[in-house]
Design a protein that fits this description.
The chain is α+β, with helices and mostly antiparallel strands. The protein has 15 helices and 19 strands. A hairpin with a 4-residue loop joins β11 (about 305-315) and β12 (about 320-330). The longest helix has 21 residues, at about 140-160. GO terms for molecular function: ATP binding; histidine-tRNA ligase activity.
């Protein structure tokens, strides 16, 4: 059989990379739960008509069909491209069993049929948090969500060495009110073009607004002028007012965004920035929107995003407004792991290799391994009763720091890095804490 070729856009980590990913997910999950978010998991597929109506995503949905579908079977399913749309369905389906406001976290694979490139993949892991209310949801949750996100990134930086980040925020009400104040009848079309600001630049966005949306040159310039405003404090309000546009929705958006920036500046000084170019391409956002920049990797774009949605979930009688945030786990990790910025201290969980004197004594080696594992020490038994030098080399190749000799008589353990060997009792010996599990190390 010929060597298989990789499929572009579907990353697979080697064991060292997977260990890094697992540690990152542990920190994310633990931090979510420190803030009271309960775990859920949703199915991988949703009805295609539900997926395809959520913004400019139709061409990116992977369609699922049975190879031997029954004649006349018409159900069309697609793999979910994010975790928010399936979560909306989940809330509607299980509302009678949930207590609102409902706080959920969800860590799963998603699929998106876009052109693969660094930081953008066709299969990737996301980690989401959402707070959902029944009929109403207090605005203070719009401030809470980015602060939780910053707590996650801070812990990832301190504990595992990931780069620091800043979160950029805007408010859809502000943008839409500004556009309506200019007499623009299709604010969504403008938002979708402004969302390309960082990718193609202000001049190209100005051209798109005129050529594709039909704006007058003055309208297009005003929209791009708004997108160029950013600040770490409330000074953005005066800059927007100076553009001379008036609208009630604009006033509401300015007030809400100013309140968020004011609180965030006290909690996380300099890490939350009002950036009025942030739009988010999906059409279910109705208020605050967030994007996250990883310092040193700005050209990757946003590595985490989210926002407020007041009408994503509704059964016609009850509406479930919410606010959420999504961490692009694979988007963050694949470049860092690929460039060697994040590595694991070893590629296996085992801290100890229990040597085997001969095959007749393998049972004794298994007994030692059982005692070590009972006390939480990861270990494995040598695959072959070879010369001790070869068993030590086997441990070196696998990155295992300790080799256990004796297995029931004259037991001793050797640190093969230093060569130090000492007597040991499997019922009491413990490796140094730093060697118990693989460690994630970061480098510049």
């Amino acid at each position: 059989m010929a060597r298989p070729k990789p499929i572009s856009g579907f990353p697979e980590f080697l064991p060292e990379g997977r260990i890094v990913e697992s540690r990152v997910l542990d920190v994310i999950r633990t931090t979510f739960e420190l803030h009271g978010f309960a775990p859920i998991e949703t199915r991988a597929v949703e009805p295609l008509d539900q997926l395809a109506r959520k913004g400019e995503i139709e061409k990116e949905v992977y369609v699922v069909r049975r190879l031997h579908a029954a004649e006349g079977e018409t159900d069309e399913l697609g793999l979910h491209f994010d975790l928010t749309v399936p979560f909306a369905r989940y809330v509607l389906e299980h509302a009678g069993h949930l207590v609102f406001p409902f706080r959920r976290h969800q860590i799963q694979k998603v699929w998106r049929g876009e052109r693969p490139q660094e930081g953008r993949y066709r299969e990737f892991t996301q980690a989401d948090i959402d707070i959902v209310g029944q009929d109403q949801l207090a605005e203070h949750h719009d401030v809470e969500i980015p602060l939780v996100a910053l707590d996650v990134f801070s812990r990832l930086h301190v504990e595992l060495g990931l780069p620091t980040v800043s979160i950029r925020v805007n408010n859809r009400k502000l943008s839409e009110g500004f556009y309506r104040g200019l007499g623009i009848e299709d604010p969504a079309a403008v938002l979708q073009r402004v969302d390309k600001y960082d990718k193609i630049g202000p001049d190209a966005v100005t051209d798109l607004l005129q050529e594709q949306v039909g704006l007058a040159p003055a309208q297009a310039r005003a929209c791009v002028g708004l997108a160029g405003i950013q600040s770490e404090d409330e000074s953005f309000v005066d800059k927007v007012r100076a553009l001379g546009v008036q609208h009630d929705l604009l006033d509401a958006g300015l007030e809400e965004l100013a309140a968020l920036i004011r609180i965030a500046a006290r909690q996380e000084p300099g890490r939350v920035v009002a950036d009025l170019r942030i739009a988010r391409g999906l059409d279910y956002y109705t208020g605050m929107v967030y994007e996250t920049v990883m310092h040193g990797f700005e050209r990757m774009g946003s590595v985490g995003s989210g926002g407020r949605y007041d009408s994503l979930a509704s059964d016609g009688k009850v509406t479930f407004p919410g606010v959420g945030y999504s961490f692009g786990v694979t988007r963050i990790l694949a470049p860092l792991i690929g460039k060697g910025r994040l590595t694991a201290s070893r590629s296996v969980p085992s801290a100890v290799l229990v040597a085997v004197d001969d095959e007749e004594s393998r049972g004794s080696a298994l007994d030692v391994a059982r005692q070590l594992r009972a006390r939480g020490i990861p270990c494995e038994v040598a695959p072959k009763a070879d010369r001790f030098g070869r068993q030590i080399r086997h441990a070196e190749r696998r990155g295992i720091p300790f080799v256990w000799f004796g297995a029931g008589h004259d037991d001793s353990v050797k640190d093969i890095r230093s060569g130090h060997q000492e007597p040991a009792d499997p019922a009491g010996w413990f490796p140094p804490e730093a060697d118990l599990h693989p460690r994630v190390t970061a480098s510049e």
